[in-house]
């Protein structure tokens, strides 16, 4: 489950996108082997021991409330007067035994296997992904019955977890909404137990109560999907319309009623013209995909461009990059991380390899495109400078 193809196959590909995505929950049974390598208990222990994690990045939650930090960590002040909190393992474990749930936010940023899985899911669904890890040991609920303002893909790593699902009480609720959803009433519409390897997709607004009541420690990952609403689309449309004078003029608050009406009418015309474009959503999607910076990383020690060494390994770090073949002139355009580059058509095969998201050596890319390693190094240097690619395996 570390690449876009495996995510698509596991979730259901085009059928999932057309029938389930943003619509209803889905459970995809699996096996422990399906998620092997993403995050182990040993990995979690190492992260907790080696990272400086402050709330809310790391937190304990019980009965819907976050536990005070002093119940499981102690402040430490260095000789340079920098204070941070050191986890006390015995106290942390005592709180977990009492019924607290452990939450670790944005684990994709500190654990490469999860980072790769998050990037692949982003490539499949076209939206930014954040991954949180949750560990629980008792039947006591960590968060109570609640809903999220974003869709989630839940992957059960170890043990088992019970999910009671309730239908939304407000259609498409959002963060800082004008109205809060009412608490659900009655029995849940689904009462599920996820075991290692199982996947649950849950759209935003669905209420859920989650508990580790199966007599075994539970560790699961939640891949949170950034929501894109009509309000986001309209904000983008307004940004596009800044090239029009009507959008740049001052609002005539002190003008006559007739002048104000004419001003508003001109705004309406500009907006309706834009909204009448049947390709509007496609244009918006291409724009947000190709301007998103992705997950750029440094390419040390190569600060002055890549040397022509075939063993250097690189990969594209903008998972929603797009390539366009330009027709008669034989060139191709790669758009990513807010920049568009034109390359000779001979570069297309190596760009397709990079677009798949997998690491590749300069030597293999050169062979794929029938180019010299020096030419490939120059091309990748351009993409690295544009923060669309990175070195992931040095030759040193």
Automatic annotation (TrEMBL):
Domain JmjC per the UniProt entry, residue ranges: 85-242
Highest taxon, organism lineage: Bacteria
Entry keyword annotation includes Repeat: no
Cofactor: Fe(2+)
Listed transmembrane segments: none
Keyword annotations: Iron, Metal-binding
Matching SUPFAM superfamilies: Clavaminate synthase-like
Classification via Pfam families: JmjC_2
Signal peptide region: none
Family matches, as PANTHER family: MINA53 MYC INDUCED NUCLEAR ANTIGEN, RIBOSOMAL OXYGENASE 1
Protein name (database record): JmjC domain-containing protein
Species, as recorded: Kitasatospora nipponensis
């Amino acid at each position: 489950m570390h690449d876009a193809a495996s995510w698509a196959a596991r979730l259901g590909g085009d059928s999932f996108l057309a029938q389930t995505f943003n619509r209803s929950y889905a459970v995809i049974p699996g096996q422990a082997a399906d998620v092997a390598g993403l995050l182990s208990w040993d990995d979690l222990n190492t992260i907790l021991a080696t990272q400086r994690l402050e709330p809310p990045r790391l937190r304990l939650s019980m009965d819907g409330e976050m536990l005070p930090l002093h119940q499981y960590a102690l402040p430490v002040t260095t000789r340079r007067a920098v204070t941070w909190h050191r986890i006390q393992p015995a106290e942390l474990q005592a709180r977990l035994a009492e019924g607290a749930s452990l939450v670790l936010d944005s684990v994709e940023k500190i654990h490469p296997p999860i980072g790769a899985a998050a990037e692949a899911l982003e490539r499949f669904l076209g939206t930014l992904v954040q991954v949180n890890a949750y560990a629980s040991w008792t039947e006591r609920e960590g968060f109570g019955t609640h809903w999220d303002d974003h869709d989630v893909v839940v992957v059960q790593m170890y043990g088992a977890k019970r999910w009671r699902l309730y239908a939304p009480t407000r259609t498409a609720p959002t963060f800082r909404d004008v109205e809060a959803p009412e608490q659900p009433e009655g029995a849940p519409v689904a009462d599920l137990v996820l075991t290692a390897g199982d996947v649950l997709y849950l759209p935003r607004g669905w209420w859920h109560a989650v508990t580790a009541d199966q007599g075994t420690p539970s560790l699961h990952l939640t891949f949170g999907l950034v929501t894109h609403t009509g309000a986001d689309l309209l904000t983008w449309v307004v940004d596009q319309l800044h090239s029009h004078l009507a959008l740049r003029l001052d609002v005539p608050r002190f003008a006559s009623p007739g002048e104000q009406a004419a001003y508003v009418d001109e705004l309406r015309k500009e907006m309706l013209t834009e909204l009448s474009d049947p390709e509007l959503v496609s244009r918006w999607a291409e724009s947000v995909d190709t301007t998103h910076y992705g997950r750029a990383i440094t390419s040390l020690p190569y600060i002055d461009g890549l040397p022509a060494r075939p063993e250097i390994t690189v990969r594209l770090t903008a998972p929603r990059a797009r390539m366009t073949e330009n027709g008669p002139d034989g060139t191709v355009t790669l758009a990513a991380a807010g920049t568009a580059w034109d390359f000779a058509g001979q570069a297309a095969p190596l760009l397709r390899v990079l677009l798949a998201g997998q690491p590749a050596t300069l030597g293999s890319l050169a062979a794929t495109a029938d180019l010299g390693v020096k030419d490939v190094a120059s091309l990748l240097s351009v993409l690295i400078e544009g923060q669309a690619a990175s070195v992931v395996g040095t030759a040193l």
